[in-house]
Amino acid sequence: RLQSPFGSIRASSSTAIAEPEGIKINSVPTKPIEGQKTGTSGLRKKVKVFMQDNYLANWIQALFNSLPPEDYKNGLLVLGGDGRYFNREAAQVIIKIAAGNGVGKILVGKEGILSTPAVSAVIRKRKANGGFIMSASHNPGGPEYDWGIKFNYSSGQPAPESITDKIYGNTLSISEIKMADIPDVDLSSLGETKYGNFIVEVIDPVSDYMELMEDVFDFELIKSLLSRSDFRFTFDAMHAVTGAYAKPIFVDKLGATPDSIKNGVPLEDFGHGHPDPNLTYAKELVDVMYAENGPDFGAASDGDGDRNMILGRHFFVTPSDSVAIIAASAQLAIPYFKSGPKGLARSMPTSGALDRVAEKLVLPFFEVPTGWKFFGNLMDDGKLSICGEESFGTGSDHVREKDGIWAVLAWLSIIAYRNRNKKPGEKLVSVADVVKEHWATYGRNFFSRYDYEECESEGANKMIDYLREVISKSKPGEKYGSYALQLGDDFSYTDPVDGSVASKQGIRFVFTDGSRIIFRLSGTGSSGATVRMYIEQLETDVSKHDTDAQTALKPLIDLALSISKLKDFTGRERPTVIT
Ligand code: G6P
Ligand code: ZN
Q: Where primarily located (predicted)?
């Protein structure tokens, strides 16, 4: 039987260290635990790992040990998560350690629920010092699966590496956990409870976020589309956190029919699903959208509500195209951008579709490493409004996280805007029409990503080492089949705002025609190594735009497999997921 970590903490001998204003704070002795280094987005491990004695508590205490006291003493923090297994127990541990370290007040989503973008929105709106997100994003949940924790700072953005490195350092020397001796907090009803000077307020997970969405978008415009009888919408919450948001926003506010929400109840194990909105894991939605007479618009979001997938009838919008199309239409269709976006950005492996929009609109443009945290400084500095990643992340500076529901509302705004004058019976401009028009104007950046999940780490690392060697010897102009190399490197990024440098962010082969082959290891897996191979090629000839991406990219894919010797290094014949 799995044990609650709180039980084991109470069982160990502890001494009261202070009794300020009526709460007793215990000093719980502890020892460092190996392996608490955070990846692309926080600390992610199997639930069983987090359930080991003091595992979570050590990390949370190490975090407080890493923050300047003025960032939390008597301060305001936010806590929420995606509803996955272990969140309830974890929330109680986090609340007690926050109280033990002198936090003044913590806002907790009802039942521990808050999507990742909603945490960011609440931090910003309530001027909190920061917040915890209990989620392993799109990784499956349940006793056998994953759990995770992430800390966001006062402008709502994920803590920078300077902080997460410090936390890791402190996990290696930790000796004491400061735990308030307060009862478990009832998270099922809204309102404040006081424990001495420490306050816990249970908040509605939806209201602050919904208010922000109403500021950003023209809800009347979207409503005019969703209430048409000739437009059918479907949203798949994948039994994850956006289940809590979909009905209040799409149905109650915007007039979608109740049956347009699928898998709308958040479950601790996501209904045994893998809550990742892509063509493989959101198969149920894909089948509906590709069925005869399917809906006109389909979308899904992931475990914690920050990713999105957009589909039209019989049509998939790649995330790289999605951000480019949103950026191109934002000024007309979305009130928040009525003066035009300030700048655009994408992660390095994301296709160059957005670059072409930035060029045409003459906007500042940035290419950052994989990971949403790299957009934050640019936004805070007023350089960036709209950004996206190939990994099904799209968003803007309304919060400091990518935002699944925002992306769906952005697309609905675009479709609604395009059809605002259409009379009943007139043919509507479809998702596919919008994308094809975009390709005709800007060219089509064919894009595909191959994932090789849970490979042996040794082989995967060797392959990356080998590729580093290949690029170190490569020279511009060198021929790779029919492609000539323009540049080969291991991507490195210098943040234009604070000058920090992130190196070794992915091996790039960029060819003279703009085609790219990219390799990197995933930073979000919880076991083994996931190899990602990204392939891209620009096609300006409209007559070729309807070609299937796999067909169009076949020569480059073959080239990538041969340059990397991927099969030899990983033993994998084919990828686990293709997007
Ligand atoms: C998370 C981050 C994204 C990032 C993605 C990459 O979802 O929030 O910003 O793009 O991870 O994951 P990977 O597994 O490729 O490191
Ligand atoms: Zn996520």
A: plastid
Which candidate in 14, 66, 137, 322 is catalytic? 137
The CA radius of gyration of the chain, in Å to the nearest whole number, is: 24
Atom of ligand 1 nearest to the CA of 347: 10
Residue type, 562: S
Q: What is the ipTM of this complex?
A: 0.95
DSSP bridge partners of 299: 235, 310
177 sits in the region (left: phi over 0; alpha: psi -120 to 50; else beta) called beta
CA 280 – CA 283 distance, rounded (Å): 6
Mean local confidence (pLDDT), 11-27: 63
| pTM of the model as a whole | 0.92
Q: Which two tokens stand for residue 188?
A: 């099922």
Q: Atom 13 in ligand 1: which residue has the minimum CA distance?
A: 522
Mean pLDDT of the chain: 93
DSSP-assigned letters across all residues of 232-294: -EEEE-TTSTTHHHHIIIIIIIT---GGGEES-S--TTGGG-----STTTTHHHHHHHHSTT-
Q: Give the model's pLDDT for residue 526.
A: 60
pLDDT tens digits, one per residue of 346-385: 999 999 999 999 999 999 999 999 999 899 999 999 999 9
- Residue at token pair 């191959």: 450
The CA distances from residue 352 to 231, 268, 377, 450, in Å, are: 31, 37, 22, 18
Any idea which residue has 């000024």 for tokens? 331
Of the candidates 229, 5, 213, the residue with the CA atom closest to the CA atom of residue 96 = 5
How far is CA 207 from its chain centroid? 21
Residue among 41, 320, 378, 505 whose CB has most ligand 1 atoms within 8 A, to mutate = 41
pLDDT tens digits, one per residue of 248-275 = 999 999 999 999 999 999 999 999 989 9
Q: Compute the distance from residue 389 Cα to the ligand 1 centre, in Å.
A: 8
Annotated active-site residue 137? The verdict is: yes
421-455: burial string, b at 16+ Cβ within 10 Å, e else: ebeeeeebebbbebbbebbeebbbbbbbbbbbbbb
DSSP assignment of 186-228:
--SS-EEEEETTEEEEEE-TTHHHHHHHHHHS-HHHHHHHHT-
For residue 152, the model assigns a pLDDT of 94
Backbone phi, psi, residue 167, to 5°: -60, -45
For residue 15, pLDDT over 60 is answered with no
Q: Could you tell me the distance, in angstroms and rounded to a whole number, from the CA of residue 93 to the centre of ligand 2?
A: 23
**Which pLDDT does position 14 carry in this prediction?**
52
Q: Per-residue confidence at 162, pLDDT binned at 50, 70, 90?
A: confident
Give the residues surrounding ligand 1 with Cβ less than 6 Å away: 40-41, 137, 347, 370-372, 389, 391, 393, 522-524, 532
- Does 46 have pLDDT greater than 60? yes
Give the atom of ligand 1 at the shortest distance from the alpha carbon of 530: 14
